[in-house]
Design a protein that fits this description.
alpha/beta; 16 helices; two-stranded parallel sheet; 5-stranded parallel sheet; 352 residues; 46% helix
């Protein structure tokens, strides 16, 4: 395996190695085989590429330490989001067997980082950190449970990433979804979007989901859904809003916020300028103003914005599942002509 990896690396076929294994005999024996492969790569072949090694739950801590000294990143897969799910589908695994190694790895990464600050050539231990993965859709665990667990892992063990994998049925089992059940790829995608919001946008799990709403909206990404449920916080003026407030605007990412903060020091931004800065106005225009002005022709209500953000097909499905009621609007001094849904769409997008 080491020889094959090195030959691929030398020919520029690969940039690194992800090393994982099923359990052979027992966790310690399996990790010993993995360790030997890594030793050959690093010491005999002088392999300088990236290595991500998956630790087998239950392996001896000394083996974990030696693997961490050779790999750039290591991971202990949590596999299932709750103790009940583990007990049901993987009774040979326990919460302690998974979280114990995570804690050990976290403490060693901290020690290694501190040592390298004091001693330039101090020994490395998993310098790219640790990660984990969990399977989505094999059990009844909700998005709310999964996201809260994800947040807890980031806080307690300082994980670099939590990966999600939609369950794909490969065999009949009464404890698992039936064969032919489609993998929950959209749900996986929503969890990755929410994970991004936790790591880079300052959101908390309970801001995105709660006990009353334990699943993500299939029609809207989590950021848009949150914004629509907090219309009292919008619109924000891009020329005055704080960094954290801009981060919560749909269509404005971390890079765009930094560009906005820099650009507005020397000029007053308008919608054309925002487009050039990378802001996705298709979503952002309903939640921002420029110098106190909204985009031309807009009457902003929650239902109208929701309608504009969804495609025709998604809107029909959403409205069938969650029938909308007309919202109260501020009285106008002028009579407004009746308009069809298409007219509302054109007004909201400025394409009159």
């Amino acid at each position: 395996m080491a020889e094959l990896t090195f030959n691929f690396y030398r020919r520029n076929y690969i940039e690194g190695l992800f090393l994982s294994s099923g359990v052979l005999k027992n966790p310690d024996y399996t990790c010993e085989q993995m360790l030997e492969a890594l030793r050959i790569l690093r010491e005999e072949y002088r392999f300088a590429g990236y290595i991500h090694a998956k630790i087998i739950p239950g392996a001896d801590s000394q083996l974990i330490a030696r693997i961490g000294a050779l790999a750039d990143r290591i991971s202990v897969n949590i596999e299932l989001p709750s103790q009940n799910s583990l007990r049901l589908l993987a009774p040979d695994k326990s919460k302690h067997a998974i979280l114990g190694p995570m804690g050990y790895i976290h403490s060693h990464i901290k020690e290694s980082s501190a040592d390298r600050k004091r001693y330039r050539h101090g020994p490395k231990f998993a310098p790219a950190g640790q990660s984990t993965q969990m399977i989505i859709g094999a059990t009844t665990d909700t998005d709310f449970q999964i996201l809260n667990l994800t947040e807890s892992l980031y806080k307690k063990y300082k994980l670099k990433r939590v990966f999600f994998s939609a369950y794909m049925p490969v065999a009949e089992n009464t404890l698992l979804p039936a064969m032919g059940t489609k993998p929950q790829l959209l749900r996986e995608h929503r969890l990755y979007q929410a994970d991004w919001l936790l790591r880079f946008y300052g959101f908390t799990a309970r801001e995105l989901l709660d006990e009353q709403h334990q699943s993500f909206n299939p029609y809207l990404d989590p950021k848009c859904h949150w914004a629509l449920n907090h219309m009292e916080l919008f619109p924000v003026d891009v020329n005055r809003a704080a960094y954290n407030d801009l981060l919560r605007v749909p269509g404005i990412g971390v890079t765009s916020v930094k560009r906005i903060i820099t650009a507005r020091r020397t000029t007053t931004l308008n919608f054309d300028a925002l487009r050039k800065l990378g802001v996705v106005l298709k979503r952002a225009q309903y939640f921002i103003t420029c110098g106190g002005k909204t985009a031309d022709g807009m009457i902003i209500t929650r239902d109208a914005v929701l309608r504009a953000l969804l495609s025709e097909k998604a809107w029909a499905m959403y409205n069938e599942r969650f029938p909308l009621h007309p919202e109260a609007e501020q009285l106008s001094l002028f009579d407004e002509p009746s308009s069809c849904q298409e007219d509302v769409q054109k007004c909201l997008t400025g394409q009159i």
